[in-house]
Amino acid sequence: EDQVTQSPEALRLQEGESSSLNCSYTVSGLRGLFWYRQDPGKGPEFLFTLYSAGEEKEKERLKATLTKKESFLHITAPKPEDSATYLCAVQGSSWGKLQFGAGTQVVVTP
Amino acid sequence: EAGVTQSPTHLIKTRGQQATLRCSPISGHTSVYWYQQALGLGLQFLLWYDEGEERNRGNFPPRFSGRQFPNYSSELNVNALELEDSALYLCASSRNTGTGGLQYFGPGTRLTVT
User: Fold this and answer.
1) With an 8 Å Cβ cutoff, is B31 touching chain A?
2) Are A100 and B42 a contacting pair at CB < 8 A?
3) N or C: fewer beta carbons within 10 Å in chain A?
4) d(CA B93, CA B80)
């Protein structure tokens, strides 16, 4: 069965303090790895899709990378509005199903 | 472009009752997915519908069921509600690539069972 583990569970950053979130996965036949952002009480907002090892994608202060066993979400010079829970998910052998990790809750203080 | 919409926003039911949740996908999307997000747990896959057919199902009992209408909107029905069914129910939609596509989520329906 596909598994996704995210670390750390929570991360508290000062504004401007860069950091990285980790997503480790085991999957039979990776069809895609997805990063979402979720604000409290709201639905996840799509950030990135990665399909093959070595792939990288960037959006504003966020950069996602992928290896054969894990993905990293790098947050560069974060701002308070980057505070959210960041979710990692994989699509593998079970078609249509996204297997989610538990998420990393990020708090950025001014 | 309008996103995925869900109704109602909040739903309060009593144990043993039935709940019906609704979802309208993004225009042009034929696939609809349902997920449960219970407090302290991650998103758990419930169901995938495409072109009116159930394509895949997660590890949930049969009292969780749904359907997809010709206009691609969808309903999730939960029968014989239990306290542990209290959760945020999220709907997502995608264009279908055969194995499921990039999923965009709606705002969710908060179901509370008392």
Assistant:
1) yes
2) yes
3) C
4) 27
User: Is A35 at the interface with chain B, CB within 8 A?
Assistant: no
Q: Do A96 and B4 touch (CB under 8 A)?
A: no
Give dist(CA B79, CA B15) in Å, integer: 10
Pull the structure tokens for residue A38. Answer: 């979720």
What's chain B's Rg over C-alpha atoms?
13
CA distance A58 to B47: 31
B contact test, residue of A34, A97, A105 with most B CBs within 10 A: A97
pLDDT values of chain A reduced to their tens digit, one per residue, 110 residues: 899 999 999 999 999 999 999 999 999 889 999 999 999 989 999 999 999 999 999 999 999 999 999 999 999 999 999 999 999 999 988 888 999 999 999 999 99
Q: Which residue of A has its CA nearest to B88?
A: A41
Q: Kindly report the number of other CB atoms within 10 A of residue A80's CB atom.
A: 11
Strands (E), A1-110: 3-7, 10-14, 19-26, 32-38, 45-50, 56-59, 62-66, 70-75, 84-91, 98-100, 104-109
Q: Kindly determine whether residue A41 and residue B88, on different chains, have CB atoms separated by under 8 Å.
A: yes
CA distance to A15, B39, B74, B77, B83, per residue, from B113 (Å): 40, 13, 22, 14, 5
Cα separation, B73 vs B93, whole angstroms: 10
Checking DSSP bridges between strand A3-7 and strand A19-26, what pairing results, if any? antiparallel
